[in-house]
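Example 3.2
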Amino acid sequence: MRRRKLLVLALLAAAAPAAAQPAARLLPEGSEIVFTTRQMGVPVEGRFTRFSAEVALDARQPQAGRVVLLVDTASARFGAAELDSEVPQPIWLASAAFPQARFESTAIAAAGGGRFEVAGRLTIKGTTRELRVPVTLAVDGAQTVAAGRFTLKRLDFRVGEAEWSDTSLLADEVQVRFRLRLDGLPLPP
């Protein structure tokens, strides 16, 4: 009887889903989200100064991982007061109505050598689009750094409406690069 009970417990434990991976803590110092667009062919760089991330990932079992990134849209900065005050306006990021942009992963796959492909949904200004983001994990002291870059089309998210939808004035493509310093993420092998 005791043996049967142990066998049942072992089978139940094997069938139970794996425990959720604990989320790493984002360290703001050393983390950044930078974006570059082109206005009349000239590169213009900006950054978000406030964002948070929930990253739960074991490099040995990436498919069980999860990433959620929240960006405060009113924190976009170009370093020029005129531009900085314009970006939260309705034709741009509409920060009053949409205070956060959100990326949430739907799948994570290993690509070898500390590289991963994170598929997910990006929501900006109430519009959601599928996105695939290549991410590299690297050890930096006791922390892990997740870094990558991708391109999005601003008009897919209604960023830059009215006269600013003219791509000869402002390019549709926006290059985004990020570096997230994380504490508590299991270090990649």
